[in-house]
Amino acid sequence: MLGEIVKDLKYTAILKTQNENYQITINEDGFYGIINGQNEEVVENKYSYIEYLFEDYFIASNKSGKLGVINSKEEVKIELKYEVLQKIDNTNVIEAKILKEKMTDFYSTNLELVYSVKDGYIYKEDEYLKVYSKEGDKYLDFNGKILETKEVFKDNALIASKKDNKWGFVDRNGNIVVEYSYDKVTEFNEYGFAGIKIHNKWGVIDSKGNVVKEPIYENIETNSAPEFLGEFYKVYYGYGEFYYTNK
């Protein structure tokens, strides 16, 4: 946003937005508001911060520093209760965090809550977003629609599946191929291997469901799912460098 000093003593600054119909104002007390294209006040200067989002929506912060989303009629579209709120780059997905509870909420392009997760980590892939957590992976398109795993991994014959808090694998028709006996699993990677976890130890199976390595690897899970190549797992050691090991 570009700012300019104005002669109207009501405001100390006016900030242009990407929408020519709206500008953000700051008064002499440092509070933010919004005016329309006719310089009419549509949102009173009572927010500690306002940032343009898209269409007629704005990220706003109340006097307590909590963030949410309002529209140009000052209707609250996302409750002002978050410490962090942002649109994920090059998507229409809103990521909002309550830090104390370690909770992350994801909102779609129409500002509907689509997914909530505790201790989740988000990764932006070429065509989708992946949210990784202890509860399993969740996939969203760039508008916030929840994707089925088989929509994401179109070439995988087997898909991770959860039932009664246990994980296994099914074929693309939903038939069980690997029984629900694991605490957690990964999806099959491009090399045809997936991780299987029991009692905090990881092992490996191949694309036919055969066990390549019984679960023996400990402490190899960080903020993302471990990756396997046969019985070997990937280790990153900085600057994008990695190696595989079975130690």
How would you characterize the overall build of this protein?
This protein has 247 residues and is an all-beta fold. Helix content is 2%, strand content 54%. It has one helix and 27 strands. The chain has one helix at residues 149-152, and strands spanning 3-4, 13-16, 22-26, 32-36, 41-47, 49-54, 57-61, 67-71, 76-82, 84-87, 94-98, 103-107, 113-118, 121-124, 129-132, 138-140, 146-147, 158-163, 166-171, 176-182, 184-185, 193-198, 201-206, 211-218, 228-229, 232-238, 241-245. The strands form seven sheets. The protein has a five-stranded antiparallel β-sheet, with no helix packed on it. A hairpin with a 4-residue loop joins strand 14 (121-124) and strand 15. The longest helix has 4 residues, at 149-152. The relative contact order is 0.07. The mean pLDDT is 92.
Strand share of the residues?
over 45%
**Percent in helix:** under 10%
In sequence order, what are the helices and strands, one letter per element?
A: EEEEEEEEEEEEEEEEEHEEEEEEEEEE
User: Whole-number average pLDDT?
Assistant: 92
Order of strands across the main sheet: 1-2-3-4-5
